[in-house]
Design a protein that fits this description.
single chain; alpha/beta
């Protein structure tokens, strides 16, 4: 879509839904009742994370506009046998949202790599959804250079990682005038619901609790600015060089994909399967962009089977 058409669409949305709105109330449980809430200091930036369980470590990375809440159905079963970490990436969830412009995938990967070093994690399973998958891959490539034994498996779920047409909720925040006006007149709850409907295949599975929770996190001070900066920087400038390195991944990789994903299409998953040597692709039918929520049972089954191999 040409920039003028995107601008027109953005203005139309603003006109349709302009007006006063109430600030979303905090959800009943901001944290995770199955994990202990902790803070990691990353060069003065407080990163919120949760830890639960004992055993082989697993680190879960959420996607664009989300937070650790995404993993609420995946974390508890894994924590029965593993030491599970769920991080709010910089600028998301309850983590700090500094106005420093450092929200590229590589910036997030630097933070995650430092977290892995600080926790002294080894034999780690690194798992990422959507943008978090791109962060997981880049983190692996960074960490491998200094200590190949730290990360020995990857799980990519509907992961970003190749050039593609971006969904509207990533294109629109790149337009300053639309983003500025939208921040004033669009309800956070309306936006959360609209994005979830784009991400889900089965719309009936979208609950009020989900909408309210994502709306709350998305309306915290600095959250909109963090999303805007992330949208601007979400495609690495050296994307071709990055994708070339996928062929050098030397650990087992499980690729999980929703067959009906309209955000990151299935062909991207097939590209990962083609380029990553020791990889397997599992496709979940009648599922959209967020299998950890929409089809949590099947997603858990695939992950646990992979970890037992």
């Amino acid at each position: 879509m040409r920039p003028i058409k995107i601008l027109a669409l953005g203005c139309l949305l603003l006109l349709m839904f302009a007006g006063c709105y109430r600030i979303p109330a905090p959800p009943g449980n901001l944290g995770q009742d199955w994990g202990e809430q902790k803070t990691f200091d990353y060069h003065g930036v407080k990163i919120n994370y949760y830890e639960a369980g004992q055993g082989r470590p697993i680190l879960l990375l959420h996607g664009f506009g989300a937070c650790a809440y995404t993993w609420r159905f995946i974390g508890p079963p894994l924590a029965d046998q593993h030491r599970v970490f769920t991080i709010d990436l910089k600028g998301y969830g309850l983590s700090d949202k500094p106005d420093d412009g450092k929200y590229a995938v590589s910036d997030q990967a630097d933070m995650v790599a430092e977290f892995i070093r600080t926790q002294d994690l080894h034999d780690l399973v690194l798992m990422g959804h959507s943008m978090g998958g791109g962060v997981a891959l880049m983190t692996y490539l960074k960490v491998r250079e200094e200590n190949p034994g730290r990360i020995n498996r990857l799980v990519l779920i509907d992961s970003a990682g190749y050039p593609q047409k971006m969904p509207w909720f990533i294109r629109l925040p790149r337009i300053p005038v639309v983003n500025a006006i939208g921040a004033r007149v669009l309800s956070p709850r309306f936006l959360a619901a609209l994005v979830l409907r784009k991400c889900y295949y089965n719309k009936d599975k979208i609950t009020d609790e989900m909408i309210d929770t994502y709306a709350y996190y998305g309306n915290l001070p600095g959250a909109r600015e963090a999303v805007m900066e992330t949208a601007k920087q979400i495609v690495p400038e050296n994307i071709e060089a990055v994708t070339d390195r996928y062929k050098t991944v030397s650990v087992p990789v499980l690729i999980i994909w929703g067959a009906e994903d309209q955000v990151v299409p299935l062909k991207v998953g097939r590209n990962f399967k083609r380029d990553i040597p020791d990889s397997e692709l599992a496709i979940i039918p009648r599922c959209g962009h967020i299998p950890p929520e929409e089809e949590a049972g099947e997603t858990n089954r695939l992950i646990i089977t992979f970890l037992k191999q």
